[in-house]
Specification:
Mean pLDDT: 80
Helix content: 55-70%
Distance between the termini: 16 Å
Structural class: mainly alpha
Number of strands: 3
Number of helices: 15
Strand content: under 5%
Largest sheet: 3 strands, antiparallel
Low-confidence stretches: 1-8
Radius of gyration: 24 Å
């Protein structure tokens, strides 16, 4: 009788969340197969693929950009990133007064603005079938469809963040796996061995950095027993993981979208045309800008999300201190130096491997389709590690039997 009672009170939290995530991914895959109204898919069949199109497919899953979900998750993650930076600049006091509901409303409005601009700029490259409607009307319909698709993705990603597994990352994971499968099938092992080797090394390096902790011993005033020596502040070897690589894609796309949008009104502007040509991963300038964004975001995210200044302030308020370091400003400087070193190291590692692959592509030694393989490997590893830990945590949660 007791065993039946305990079994009845199992939560099945992992199963419930996994089923919801699978349902959301099914909705995403279906939406990704719906073509925009009257678009001509045959016009895209022979389009050459390159690292730029591969990058787009990581965040949209639609390298040709002619489906309802063509914008993908890019407007969503870009709006989130902008809000994170805005809140960090305004400070903790402003953030405390900013309710989660208001935060969600502002993020949604910002996402709509980004989605509309992205949709309008992308309609210029669409090819439509012959119909009774003029091209301008078809572009308006396509822009409305892409914007609506971005809103749907925003909603299902938000639902998965609250009730599913992995937050927004399962959508990116599906895009990456789909892209990898489609790309690998096109090449022989001779063509694949260099990028695959870089891929494996990059995955191993990211996995190592994700699981190595730099521990800073802390003296807690409330702990005076055998556990006192086990109190510490921990930073990963890559303090913020591969988030900079994922978000760098969105950041890299923003100026491209802005230029494409302006070209709708100033088609003959040579400066805008020059910028559009250079802001591409098939050019040295574009590669340098992309790697610079990755490196810069690595610093920005680390100091915004880990906030060594807030850590030092909390230690001082609680009466705790880092062993061998005075509380207050010295602790703040110590934590900042430590985080600065780790961030610089991880940024160099990320840029080294991705830069090597992109450089080989520019020289023609590997196919442009394979230039972002190391970036793909780092994102894939960075997604799977926390996803595994989250599933493991919910599995342990389900193993408990609740008596009340």
């Amino acid at each position: 009788m007791k065993e039946c009672y305990l079994k009845k009170n199992k939560t099945h939290e992992l199963r419930r969340r996994l089923l919801l995530t699978v349902l959301i991914l099914a909705i995403y895959m279906v939406g990704r197969s719906f073509l925009l109204y009257n678009v001509d898919p045959a016009a895209y069949e022979l389009e050459e693929l390159n690292s730029q199109n591969i990058m787009i497919s990581m965040i949209s899953g639609d390298r040709y950009q002619y489906t309802v979900f063509a914008l993908g998750i890019m407007p969503h993650i870009t709006s989130m990133l902008i809000m994170w930076i805005f809140m960090a600049i305004r400070g903790a006091e402003f953030k405390a007064r900013f309710s989660p509901q208001k935060m969600e409303r502002v993020t949604l409005m910002l996402m709509l603005v980004i989605a509309v601009i992205s949709a309008v700029s992308r309609t210029n490259g669409l090819v439509f079938k012959e119909s009774g409607l003029d091209t301008q009307t078809l572009k308006i319909i396509a822009a409305a469809e892409m914007t609506a698709g971005a809103v749907v993705i925003y909603k299902i990603a938000s639902i998965n963040k609250e009730e599913g597994i992995g937050g927004q990352t399962p959508i990116i994971l599906v895009n990456i796996l789909d892209n990898l499968a489609a790309t690998i099938q096109k090449f022989t092992w001779t063509e694949l061995h260099k990028p695959m080797l870089l891929c494996l090394v990059m995955a191993a390096v990211v996995l190592t950095m994700e699981n190595i902790l730099v521990r800073i011993p802390v003296q807690r005033v409330s702990i005076h027993n055998i556990y006192a020596d086990k109190s510490y502040i921990a930073f990963k070897l890559d303090p913020i993981g591969v988030m900079p690589v994922m978000f760098a894609i969105s950041f890299f796309m923003l100026p491209q979208l802005a230029v494409r949008f302006l070209l709708l009104f100033y088609e003959e502007n040579h400066t805008l045309q020059f910028i559009r040509e250079k802001l591409n991963l098939t050019t040295p300038t574009g590669v340098a800008i992309y790697l610079g964004i990755v490196f810069a975001l690595n610093f920005i995210f680390s100091f915004i999300m880990l906030s060594p200044g807030d850590m030092a302030e909390q230690l001082q308020k609680s009466g705790d201190s880092i062993v061998g370091v005075y509380a207050g400003k010295k602790t703040k400087r110590y934590l900042r130096r430590k985080l600065l070193f780790l961030t610089f190291f991880s940024g160099c590692v990320l840029c080294l491997f991705m830069g090597t692959s992109l450089g080989l592509s520019l020289k023609g030694e590997i196919s442009p389709d394979l230039a972002l393989f190391p970036a793909t490997a780092s994102i894939l590893t960075g997604i799977l590690c926390p996803l595994y830990r989250e599933i493991k945590a919910y599995r342990k949660f389900d193993s408990y039997s609740f008596f009340i």
